[in-house]
Amino acid sequence: MRIVHLVSSLGPTCSARYLAHVVPRFPGESLIINTGFAEPFAPQLRQAGTSVRELRFRGPLDGATALDLYRSVAAYAPDIVHFWGDRATAIANVLVPHPLRRPSLPIVVGDLRADSRSLFVCRMRRLACAARDSVPVVDPEPAAPAETGLPAGARMILNVGGYDERSDQRSAVWSYDMLRYVDPQAHLVVVGDGPLRAKVEAFAKSIGRGDPRIHFVGPRADVPALLRSAAIAFSTHRAGGRTFLAEALAAGVPVVAVDTPDARTLIRDGENGLLVRRGDYPVQAGAMLRIVSDSALANRLTEGARESRFPTPDEAARDLERFYRTLAG
Question: Which residue among 109, 168, 220, 328 has its CA within the 20 to 30 Å range from the CA of 285?
Answer without folding.
Answer: 220
